[in-house]
């Protein structure tokens, strides 16, 4: 089971070639790729055209969707953020902190192309694909 971050999905739907989008294309239909509620919101909010929005919503609705945030994840995300800040590392986006905390807690690999996750890999054991 692999969680895919919005940074990869957005590039994938925009046709941006990269190692991550190629890997996602390879994983779909072969591995269990899951969606997260926060990631779904990030991906869907970017579509300007209603038709594109509806097509992607239909496609992504076929994936299992995990509820990423709850009290335990929120507390864990704050703890991780504080740990990194004490080492001089600032993560720019709260949503990325929540996604990383969920993945670390559940030992769920994350496919991403967002540098905000790099400190979680280096210092907190996030498994990046």
Spatial order of strands in the largest sheet: 3-2-1-4
Instruction: Sum up the overall morphology in one term.
Output: globular
Order of SSEs: EHHEHHEHHEH
Helix/strand-derived category reads alpha/beta
Low-confidence stretches: none
C-alpha end-to-end distance: 11 Å
Instruction: Please give the largest β-sheet.
Output: 4 strands, parallel
Number of strands: 4
Number of helices: 7
Radius of gyration: 15 Å
Q: In percent, how much strand structure appears in the residues?
A: 5-15%
The total domain count is 2
**What is the overall pLDDT average?**
96
Q: What share of the residues lie within helices?
A: 55-70%
Task: Quickly list its features.
single chain; 129 residues; alpha/beta; 2 domains; four-stranded parallel beta sheet
Topology:
Layout (H helix, E strand, L loop, with lengths): L1 E3 L1 H8 L5 H9 L5 E4 H8 L5 H12 L3 E2 L4 H15 L8 H13 L3 E2 L6 H7 L5
Parallel strand pairs: 1-2, 1-4, 2-3
Helix pairs in contact: 1-2, 1-3, 5-6
């Amino acid at each position: 089971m692999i969680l895919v971050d919005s940074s990869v999905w957005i590039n994938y739907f925009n046709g941006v070639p990269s190692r991550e989008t190629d890997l996602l294309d390879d994983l779909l239909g072969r591995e269990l790729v899951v969606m997260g509620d926060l990631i779904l919101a990030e991906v869907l909010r970017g579509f300007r055209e209603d038709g594109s929005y509806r097509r992607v919503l239909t496609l992504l609705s076929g994936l299992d969707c995990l509820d990423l945030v709850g009290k335990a994840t929120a507390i864990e995300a704050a703890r991780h953020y504080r740990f990194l800040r004490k080492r001089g590392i600032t993560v720019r986006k709260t949503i990325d902190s929540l996604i990383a905390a969920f993945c670390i807690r559940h030992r769920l690999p994350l496919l991403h192309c967002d540098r905000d996750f790099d400190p979680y890999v280096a210092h907190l054991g996030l498994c990046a694909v």
